[in-house]
Amino acid sequence: MKHINGIVVLICIVFLSSCTEYRKVLKSTDMQYKYDMALSYFKDGKFVKAYPLLEELYIVYRGTDKGEKIAYYQARCDFKMEDYMLAAHRFGQFYKNYPNSEYKEQSQFMSAFCNYKLSPKWSLDQRDTYRAIRSLQLFTIDYPNSTKIDSCNTLLDELRYKIEYKEYRAAKLFFNMENYQSAQVSFDSFIKEYPASKYREECWFLKLKSGYLLAANSVDDKKLERIELAKEAYVNFVDRFPQSKWLKQAGEMYDALQKLEETTKNIS
Question: CA–CA separation, 240 vs 220, rounded Å?
Answer without folding.
Answer: 31
